[in-house]
Amino acid sequence: MTDTQAHREQVHERVLSWYAAHGRDLPWRRPEATPWGIYVSEIMAQQTPIARILGPWLTWLKRWPNPAALAADPPAEAIRAWDRLGYPRRALNLHAAATAMVRDHDGEVPADLDQLRALPGVGEYTAAAVGSFAFGIPAPVVDTNVRRVLARIALGEAQAAPSLTKAERDLAAAWMPADPDDANRWNVASMELGALVCTARTPGCGVCPVADLCVWRVAGSPAYDGPRRPHQGYAGTDREVRGAIMAIVREADAAVPAAAFTDVAAADRIERAVAGLVADGLLRLSEQGYDLPR
DNA sequence: CAAACGTGGAT
DNA sequence: TATCCAAGTTT
């Protein structure tokens, strides 16, 4: 009974109606949301909890309602507006992508998977997500939520492997409903199920619409026995130093001298972090010191 | 392919 | 307090 075509269709039905009743009313999901708004939401959501991007998204879209508006401002403004969302290269990428949209796509978000994928900061996931949510292209959207949902429902495993495998891509593709509209709804609905019910830490199997169809659940929710995801530390890393330096430069009114960073860490670590930030284009060295790119 | 890349809330 | 985890991408 498990993982047959009939099983999948039953799961589709239940998850789609669950989403219709319980999906969140996020601003980029509303009918009036533009491809640009959806694009910005996807970049902001990379490795970042949805709750944390809500405010910044509203601010961002009000200030830069379309790609041309953002492209008209210097990258420094995008980096400042990004504030503490993390991975500030995403702000730089967003600005560069807006510039590319103006230059190559008539100021619009391209409605094509390959053209999306060619934009800076857009990988396999984001291209599929923007394609599906903004343009109705029924590409499999395989994010961390979908991976976990499929691992449990279809494979009977508590969690997905540490990194996306070809087997998982194939599985996600096989699970796509044949009808394009259903496929696009399945993308957002299965992601939402993973975000709200089929969560990593304490899954809400008691309220899950497909608990009785879940291979993992039916097997008694066995513990994960595969390889663990490598632990990503932060304290003592260059990332920590880079973050502290960027915070100082963001909040300064003018270029700051290197001396402004001395309290952040040991001199050699500061030197390495600054060099990296300059190489990444997040920092610029002028006569007066370091500032954001213009 | 492994490792780098920010930040903060939850357990 | 320590670790985990969050709509990934790039090199």
Alpha-carbon distance between the two ends: 60 Å
The major sheet is characterized as: 2 strands, antiparallel
Tally of individual helices: 14
State the share of residues found in helices, binned by percent.
40-55%
The tally of strands reads 2
The CATH homologous superfamily of the domain at 22-135: Hypothetical protein, domain 2
* Estimated share of beta-strand residues: under 5%
Shape: globular
Q: Could you name the CATH topology of the domain at 22-135?
A: Endonuclease III, domain 1
Q: Give the helix/strand class.
A: mainly alpha
List low-pLDDT spans: none
- The CATH C-level name of the domain at 22-135 is Mainly Alpha
CATH architectural category of the domain at 22-135: Orthogonal Bundle
User: What is the CA-based Rg, rounded?
Assistant: 21 Å
Order of helices and strands: HHHHHHHHHHHHHHEE
Q: What strand order characterises the main sheet? A: 1-2
Task: Give the integer mean of the pLDDT values.
Answer: 97
Pfam families: EndIII_4Fe-2S, HHH, HhH-GPD
Catalytic activity: Hydrolyzes free adenine bases from 7,8-dihydro-8-oxoguanine:adenine mismatched double-stranded DNA, leaving an apurinic site
Organism: Nostocoides jenkinsii Ben 74
Protein name: Adenine DNA glycosylase
Question: Could you write a compact summary of the structure shown?
Answer:
The protein is mainly alpha-helical and 294 residues long.
Q: Can you characterise this structure?
A:
It comes from Nostocoides jenkinsii Ben 74. One of its GO terms (molecular function) is oxidized purine DNA binding. One of its GO terms (biological process) is base-excision repair. The radius of gyration is 21 Å and the shape is globular. The chain has helices at 5-22, 35-45, 50-63, 67-72, 75-82, 89-104, 113-117, 124-135, 144-153, 166-174, 180-196, 215-218, 238-251, 267-279, and strands spanning 284-285, 290-291. With 294 residues, it is mainly alpha-helical. The N and C termini lie far apart (60 Å). Among the domains are: 22-135, Hypothetical protein, domain 2 (Endonuclease III, domain 1, Orthogonal Bundle); 238-291. The chain has 14 helices and 2 strands, in the order H-H-H-H-H-H-H-H-H-H-H-H-H-H-E-E. Strand 1 (284-285) and strand 2 form a beta hairpin. The protein binds a DNA duplex (11 and 11 nucleotides) through helix 2, helix 3, helix 6, helix 8 and helix 9.
